[in-house]
Specification:
alpha/beta, seven-stranded mixed β-sheet, 14 helices, 16 strands
């Protein structure tokens, strides 16, 4: 088609993106990002051009077929800052906007050139999703959804992630969403608590693992009083019987939810607002284990030493039998005091296990949802408060067939990503507003 030129970049470097912009001599430029063969459906490219004309979009992208299977993508929004946002292989740019964006590039990236381009183009115009299947390609990554989610913390990708963080930080500064490393103090003496800490275990239908989780929590050694709050959300598989078998231990608090909708976020809220919840509420998922008997003590020590409202630890990926499996230890070293809360808008998670200062969380609460509830809270806390870090392995995260992110359909994966993008949009909007108010002296 005379109005479109297609490029297959040899890399995603800034130099390669500049080369493409220099050779873009048609009205529209397609950058095809996959190594697979590209084949448009009949009049598919023409349809892309037609919609780009009608919407005046800076870039358009569409649903496609992966081989012969439908592979839809999701709408782009202001919070779609993930560097792994799935546009499909075809990104069709208005060449004039492409050239303008490239002209402003002031950093030379080896890996983040295309990401930098996309962010810059998003500041110049719309990135428009066409809800039509317009081409065929073969997805090169056929791993399970539960494996792909760890790519951004794989140590082998560290150099790539550093560049992506730089590009995202520059974008946040350009749109007024960047936060300086200045934090509100938190008063860790607020309120009266009978327990210094509570291990919170939300669960539903985890008969195979809940006993291990409870034992791990009850066997902690501390120099303060703590308890374990297990919140069961109407299990039907025998989980309740396992929980009740531990009721002889005075440290165990059992909350049985009513039949209304709670999800993980609602179960956390039930624990946080329980009168026996401790000053610090510490996460333990119902199919995971603390790494040793000192985890609760390390959490509380970190709160005190780092004067923070939330603490994020380090975990190890294991199989069900607790053998370490790739990528191994996940330490989230991309979370730095200087830039962690900005980089949090780019990545899809904040690490685990997590601990929260109860008085603050009782004001914020968790969203009542079964996915992304902890990410939402982490973003909100980080807007104002320091998040502490522990780099010792505190948690064994077991990967097995019943994990909530195992074997997800593309529709479910898209729904999860759309929700987290929405959380980022909400948070980014609030940060931009706060920065604007601060500059205006409001």
């Amino acid at each position: 088609m005379e109005r479109v030129k297609v490029f297959r970049p040899s890399s995603f470097s800034t130099a390669e993106i500049r080369r493409i912009a220099g050779e873009a001599d048609t009205e529209y430029t397609i950058i095809y990002t996959r190594p697979s063969n590209l084949r448009f459906v009949q009049f598919g490219m023409e349809r892309m051009v037609q919609i780009a004309d009608d919407t005046a979009a800076a870039m358009v992208y569409s649903d496609r077929f992966d081989g012969g299977e439908p592979a839809p993508v999701i709408d782009y929004q202001e919070g779609s800052l993930r560097d792994d946002f799935d546009f499909g292989g075809v990104q069709m740019y208005r060449s004039s906007v492409l050239k303008e964006a490239v002209a402003g590039m002031d950093a030379d990236y080896q890996f983040a050139g295309l990401y930098d381009l996309r962010l810059r183009v998003s500041r110049l115009g719309k990135l428009f999703h066409i809800n039509e299947f317009l081409y065929y390609e073969l997805e090169g990554d056929d791993r399970d959804s539960g494996d792909k989610i760890f790519d951004y913390v794989n140590p082998r990708n560290r150099e790539v992630q550093i560049e992506m963080e730089k590009a995202c930080t520059a974008h946040l500064k350009a749109i007024g969403g960047y936060l300086e490393p200045v934090f509100k103090d938190v008063d860790l003496t607020e309120g009266e608590f009978g327990y210094e800490a509570s291990v919170v275990i939300p669960c539903k239908n985890r008969v195979r693992t809940i006993g291990d989780a409870i034992r791990s929590a009850l066997n902690q050694k501390t120099d303060f009083k703590y308890n374990v709050i297990v919140v069961d959300d109407n299990s039907t598989d025998g989980t309740v019987d396992v929980i009740k078998s531990f009721l002889g231990d005075p440290k165990l608090v059992y909350i049985a939810q009513d039949s209304s909708y709670h999800a993980i976020g609602g179960n956390w809220n039930a624990a946080l607002h329980h009168p026996e919840c401790g000053r610090f509420a510490l996460q333990l998922d119902s199919d995971d284990l603390y790494s040793d008997e000192n985890t609760v003590q390390k959490f509380v020590d970190a709160f005190r030493e780092q004067n923070c409202a939330m603490v994020v630890g380090t975990y190890r990926i294991t199989d069900f039998a607790l053998n370490t499996i790739p990528p191994g230890v996940i330490d989230h070293r991309e979370w730095t005091l200087e830039n962690g809360r900005n980089n949090a808008l780019r990545i899809n998670g904040l690490g685990a296990p997590r601990g929260f200062y109860t008085p603050l969380l009782r004001k914020l609460n968790f969203p009542v949802t079964k996915y992304g509830e902890d990410y939402a809270v982490g973003l909100r806390v980080s807007r104002e408060y320091r998040i502490g870090r522990i780099y010792d392995v505190m948690y064994n995260c077991r990967r097995w067939d019943d994990n909530s992110d195992h074997g997800l359909s593309i529709e479910k994966t898209n729904a999860n990503n759309l929700y987290k993008d929405r959380l980022r949009t909400i948070e980014l909007t609030a940060r931009i507003a706060a920065n604007t108010a601060n500059k205006s002296g409001i």
